[in-house]
Amino acid sequence: MKKLIAANWKMNKTADEAVSFMKEFQNLVRDGKNADIAICPPFTALSAVSAELKKSNIKLGAQNMHFENAGAFTGEISPLMLKEMGCHYVILGHSDRREMGENDSLINKKVISALKHGLTPILCIGETHEQRVKDETQDVLENQLIKCLQNVGEIKKVVIAYEPIWAISKGNPNQKAATKDDAEDAHLFIRKLLEGMYDEKSAKETRIIYGGSMKPENAKELLSMRNIDGGLVGNASLDAKSFAEIVKSAK
Ligand code: PGA
Fold it and tell me: Contacts by 141-148 with C-beta closer than 8 Å and gap 24+?
């Protein structure tokens, strides 16, 4: 399966900055056919990036959404609005949002709603440093997956992003990623869980991507692992050259 390399810009880049990035990035990757590429800018830059992507294979994604179509939800954005902007993906359950109070049952509603509207959820799961030290990683991942995927029938239409919280850069370029072996172990474990929850074929065809300090220096080795089907890239996706390098290392 083709790798998916997705940029999660978080709360970075104005619409103008996003357009400059897209021009530079598209020049660097050309057709970018060796990988599927997604750009997830802040809501305010979706429209500008969408316009830049008109003749491109690169897909647009959002970083969050509400599960309802419309209503009295001040400050929220609905799946219909994301569709209108041309979004293909939506990141759901990112640890930044979980820290602000999102729980698995809310994330589950969002996953179901995204699928209903033909959006591909990039569902983030992952353990904290404390949980890893206490040897709770597998329990945490299992619990998150079961709860977030309740009543989700077509697992192949979901991208799972394994993001160990302790490896996320939070903007620090020197933060260490998970080792390729630790990441691979977690991905294999997730794949086995999906096999049990669904079936072997579906589990095999579901993309499980890695996030947490992926950068040009480590992307190649992480992406060479059997069960790592791509990357969700934060800090290193803010620079067109470094993101293009990561994309090129995905064969
Ligand atoms: P990072 O962020 O690449 O800056 O660690 C990844 C993410 O949080 O999605």
Answer: 141/186, 141/189, 141/190, 141/193, 142/193, 143/104, 144/93, 144/104, 145/190, 145/193, 145/194, 145/197, 146/197, 147/104, 147/105, 147/107, 147/108, 148/93, 148/104, 148/107, 148/108, 148/111, 148/123
Instruction: Name residues contacting ligand 1 (CB within 6 A).
Output: 8, 163, 168-169, 211-214, 232-236
Instruction: Give the pLDDT of residue 23.
Output: 97
Looking at the predicted structure, is the pLDDT value of residue 31 above 80? no
Distance CA 112, CA 94 (A): 16
Ligand 1 atom 7: residue of nearest CA: 234
Burial of 46 from C-beta contacts in 10 A (0-12 / 13-18 / 19+): buried
Contact (CB, 8 A) for 126 and 162: yes
Query: Which stretches within 117-152 are classed as H helix?
Result: 129-133, 137-148
* Gap from CA of 213 to ligand 1 centroid (Å): 6
Give the Cα separation of 201 and 180 in Å (integer). Answer: 24
Left if phi > 0, otherwise alpha if psi is -120 to 50, otherwise beta: which for 17? alpha
Q: In the structure, what pLDDT confidence band is assigned to residue 30 with cuts at 50, 70 and 90?
A: confident
**Range 242-250 average pLDDT:** 96
Q: Is residue 52 annotated as a catalytic residue, yes or no?
A: no
Q: Can you list the domains of the chain with their CATH numbers?
A: 3-248 (3.20.20.70)
- Average pLDDT estimate for 220-243: 98
State the burial class of residue 239 (Cβ atoms within 10 Å of its Cβ: 0-12, 13-18, 19+): middle
Q: Does the model's pTM come out above 0.85?
A: yes
